[in-house]
Amino acid sequence: MPGPTAVTDSLWFRRFHPFDTAPVRVVMFPHAGGSAGFFRDWSAELSPYADVLAAQYPGRLDRIDERALDSLPELADRVYAALRPWADRPLVLFGHSMGAAIAFEVTRRFERDKVAGPVRLCVSGSRAPSEPRDSAVHLLPDEGLLAELSELGGTDERLLADPELRAMILPSLRGDYTAVETYVAAPEDIVRVPVTSLTGDNDPRVTLDQAGDWAAHTTGGFDLKVFPGGHFYLTRERTAVLDVVKSHLRAV
Question: Which family does it belong to (predicted)?
Answer without folding.
Answer: Belongs to the thioesterase family.
